[in-house]
TrEMBL record:
It comes from Blastomonas fulva. This is GNAT family N-acetyltransferase. It comes from the Bacteria. Signal peptide: none annotated. The chain crosses the membrane at residues 49-69. Gene3D superfamilies: 3.40.630.30. Residues 12-176 form the N-acetyltransferase domain.
Length: 176
């Protein structure tokens, strides 16, 4: 089982989620603004619980996974993200780590997603040594498209996820 490493950036601590984080996590995912481009529907507390404990499961099964993004000064939840294997059935992401991120609305517009995911990708490149990392973004999710571009991802394909179109991004030099 892989331990979830702690990574510190200028403003964030990427760490394992703990029980004390769950209420803030569930509140974040119950917010329609957060889920508008991630599934489209706010999550119930039960759905959030399954995803919350699944963050530990990713690490145990894959050797990589999602971190909780916490404010370094207050330890408050700012968002979540990392690398995943969600078995989405999209050929362009099957078998490769999928980068993903979501931020609490109070953290929007401050560059925190880019800061956190830059640290995740640095970890991926130096520790995991994943030759390919991809991400999917709903069409029209401008904020995530900007984060992806800043991280070096470019659009290279499109797919259908449960009847909804998604754009598939990869990092140049790592595309097929």
């Amino acid at each position: 089982m892989a331990a979830i490493p702690v990574i510190e950036t200028e403003r964030l601590r990427l760490r394992a989620p703990v029980m004390a984080d769950f209420d803030a996590y569930a509140a974040m995912w119950a917010d329609q603004r957060v889920t508008a481009y991630i599934g489209g529907n706010p999550r119930t507390r039960n759905e959030s619980w399954a995803r919350f404990i699944g963050m530990h499961g990713l690490w145990a099964l894959c050797g990589y996974g999602y971190w909780l993004f916490a404010d370094r000064r207050t330890d408050a939840l700012m968002g979540v993200g990392g690398l995943a294997s969600f078995e989405r059935g999209l050929p362009d992401i099957d078998g490769v780590p999928e980068a993903g991120w979501a931020m609490a609305p109070d953290a929007w517009g401050r560059g925190l997603a880019t800061e956190a995911m830059a640290a995740v990708l640095d970890w991926s490149d130096t520790v995991l040594k994943a030759p390919i990392v991809r991400c999917i973004i709903d069409p029209g999710h401008t904020a995530s498209e900007k984060v992806a571009a800043k991280l070096g991802f470019v659009l290279f394909g499109r797919g259908d996820l449960d009847g909804h179109p998604v754009n598939i991004h990869g990092r140049p030099g790592r595309l097929p």
